[in-house]
Amino acid sequence: MSEIVRVSTGIKELDEALEGGIPKGSWVVATGEPGTGKSILAMHFAYAGLRADDPVVYVTTEQEFRDVVVQARQLGMDFEKYSIYSLGWKKEPEAMPQIVVIDIFGLLKVARGLSEKAKEEAPEKARRYAALSVETLIEAITEAYDVLGLLEEGGRSPSRHVRLIIDSMSAFWVDKPVMARKYSYQLKIATHRDNVTALLTSQYAPTTGQAYGFGLEHIADGVIHLWMDEVETAKEVRRHLIIKKMRMTNHSRKAFNLEIEPGRGIVLRQT
Ligand SMILES: Nc1ncnc2c1ncn2[C@@H]1O[C@H](COP(=O)(O)OP(=O)(O)OP(=O)(O)O)[C@@H](O)[C@H]1O
Ligand SMILES: [Mg+2]
Fold first, then answer.
1. Residue 264, pLDDT score
2. In this predicted structure, what is the pLDDT of residue 210?
3. CATH of the domain at 44
4. Which residues span the domain enclosing 156?
5. Which residues cross the membrane (predicted)?
6. Ligand 1 contact, 203 CB (< 6 A)
7. pLDDT in tens, 172-225
8. CA–CA separation, 143 vs 121, rounded Å?
């Protein structure tokens, strides 16, 4: 039996609760209401990748990457120590970057490229690709792998281990929630590889407790759920984290208290 390789989440207590980390090649979803810490969890996972010398692809639909860098620095993670390339930039990458960022500008650029290509190939069937579409996202991820030097001639799957972060998936079906399940499958088929450990975030509607992208949770290899106590009753922000599922892992079944501390980021304490 081959040994399971564990990939660090960047959070010590979480790694311990996962028998060392996320199994390499897993597709993990972090779900939760606004402000529960999903984006910060994503930053930890990306930063741990850079420290471990894994190439990183970081999709951020929520914030410009500039802002991710600023917030990460407040939490003790200095992304600027590493060479960053953004797919939205006009200039070509000079050297091989360690992390490729895909923000809304990158997605717009890729969507434009896809639309132009479709027009050239079959003008009668020309169509416009939207920036926030799963097709554009898949193409952007493939381009990012290419910039990272991970694709063999003509291939679309990375030749070595890469971390993929998508924060957040909800942006891709915000105007058509009924499509969440279909889009989730499409994305999983396109990106689930032995060499890709993925962390995707998904929003919960605070009022109904319903995930906008409930399809994701069913098809994910792992679900890490974050929530906070009802603030009007608690009269403070009390956050929690629980591992709801993780394939091939005898994970902790207990919730943690989750604090976000300046200089440290997410700190978990067993309740
Ligand atoms: N420098 C900091 N020090 C302490 N806490 C911080 C700091 N920066 C952010 N936070 C806390 O983290 C929260 C934001 O967490 P995060 O962005 O990860 O939430 P999220 O789950 O991604 O929310 P959303 O669904 O809105 O994207 C802030 O509301 C704040 O409480
Ligand atoms: Mg967020």
1. 98
2. 57
3. 3.40.50.300
4. 30-222
5. none
6. yes
7. 988 888 888 899 999 999 999 999 999 999 987 665 555 555 678 889 999 999
8. 20
CA dihedral 54, 60, 63, 69 (to 10 degrees): 10
Q: What is the mean pLDDT of each run of 10 residues along the chain (271 residues)?
A: 90 98 98 96 98 98 93 98 96 93 97 96 91 97 97 92 96 86 93 97 71 74 97 98 98 98 98 83
Whole-number Å distance between alpha carbons of 42 and 211: 18
Structural domain contains residue 66: yes
Q: Give the model's pLDDT for residue 209.
A: 55
CA 189 to ligand 2 center in whole angstroms: 24
Domain count for the chain: 1
Q: How long, in residues, is the chain? A: 271
Rounded Cα distance between 107 and 113, Å, is: 10
Q: Would you say the CB of residue 151 lies under 6 angstroms from ligand 1?
A: no
Within a domain: residue 269? no
C-alpha 120 to ligand 1 mean position (Å): 44
